Amino acid sequence: MSRWENANVLITGGLGFIGSSLGIRLAALGANVTALDSLTPEYGGNLKNLEGSDHLVRINISDVRDVHSLRYLVQGQDFLFNLAGQTSHLDSMHDPLTDLEINCRSQLSILETCRSHNPKLRLVFASTRQIYGRPDYLPVDELHPLRPVDVNGINKLAGEFYHLLYQQVYDIPTCVLRLTNTFGPRMRVKDARQTFVGIWIRRILEGQPFEVWGGEQLRDFTYVDDCVEAMLLAATHPNAIGKCFNLGGTEPVSLLKLAETLVSANGGGSFVLKEFPAERKRIDIGHYYSDDRQIREELGWMPSVSLQDALTRTLAYYRQNLSSYL
User: Fold this and answer.
1) What is the pTM of this model?
2) What per-residue confidence (pLDDT) applies to 285?
3) Whose CA, among 176, 186, 245, 321, lies 20 to 30 Å from 236?
4) CATH 3.40.50.720 fits 8-183+222-249+289-304, yes or no
């Protein structure tokens, strides 16, 4: 029998890009899944994301800032995947207090609710590579200094520390995954709030040139299905409790090379190289790619989807569904 058969699972941000992909996978494995999402327009939740699996996943429209609903929802859960968050780095600079509420204060509230009402559930927190800031060395491992360059990174780092503290002090079994440039079907493509790859996908499918800022920056990418597999391991493997793991996936590639690969996968299209806008340049981290050996060695995670295949699959999804994401 599957480890997930009849397991009770709560996913915050469950109608978002990664949360919905995770929910569909868990439902297929036999879990009883509840997707909690506020459907706040800026944050990527979309009912379309569960289309075809919505009869298998219970949807609760609520907000992680609502402690009353959380108190009810965490009870009886075996697992909590804590994916709700404000992901835009630029938005965090324009509206830092909202970022504080969602990415910091609400994380503490979630943990307090678990401590009071369900301290034994396994909890996975989705963090970000942004907490490292500008790398001192490459690839970046988990021992790299933590120096966020924007409000979003500072609040996500606080969220990490809260999760690790509650594991150490209250024995709530938590694990932190530091995600890097996750993309794939169901991601936000309306704008670049979630990932710049999204707006590239939109533009190329609309027959418009997309913009590549700089172009020389090196990045690594994780296809969403590989990210989901990492989360399943983080929630069940005994070696995961109380630890932080980098996610990577692909070999590092320049943004210029990524753009060329996207055009190739699409069978056509164009892009223009541009200078970084000054506002974004101030919070750009330059070259970044992860050292993900720890999660490979300790949890046995191994990405299985190449960059070319990942782009091909993503393009195929949005050729059929683009109008639902605009």
Assistant:
1) 0.95
2) 80
3) 186
4) yes
* 3-state SS, one letter per residue, for 116-151: HHCCCCEEEEEEEHHHHCCCCCCCECCCCCCCCCCH
- Give dist(CA 292, CA 249) in Å, integer: 8
Most distant CA pair in the chain: distance in Å? 55
The candidate with the shortest Cα–Cα distance to 250, out of 307, 325, 170, 208, is 307
Q: Angle at the Cα of 25 (from 22 to 29), degrees rounded to 5?
A: 135
Q: What is the tens place of the pLDDT at every residue in 112-128?
A: 999 999 999 999 999 99
Distance CA 294, CA 246 (A): 8
172/63 Cα distance (integer angstroms): 22
Residue 134, CA atoms < 13 Å, CB-side half-sphere: 8
C-alpha separations of 234 from 21, 75, 100, 124, 326 in Å: 16, 21, 26, 7, 33
pLDDT of residue 1: 59
**Residue 186 CB: number of other CB atoms within 10 A?**
27
Residue 286 and residue 226 in contact, taking contact as beta carbons nearer than 8 Å:
no
Rounded to the nearest 5 percent, the helix, strand and coil shares of the chain are 45, 15, 40
Name the 3-class secondary structure at 216: coil
Asked whether 129 and 246 are in contact (CB, 8 A), the reply is: yes
> Which segments of the chain have a pLDDT < 70?
1, 278-281, 283
Return all residues near 179 (Cβ < 8 A) that are at least 6 apart.
18, 126, 127, 128, 129, 222, 227, 247
The answer to whether 127 and 159 are in contact (CB under 8 A) is yes
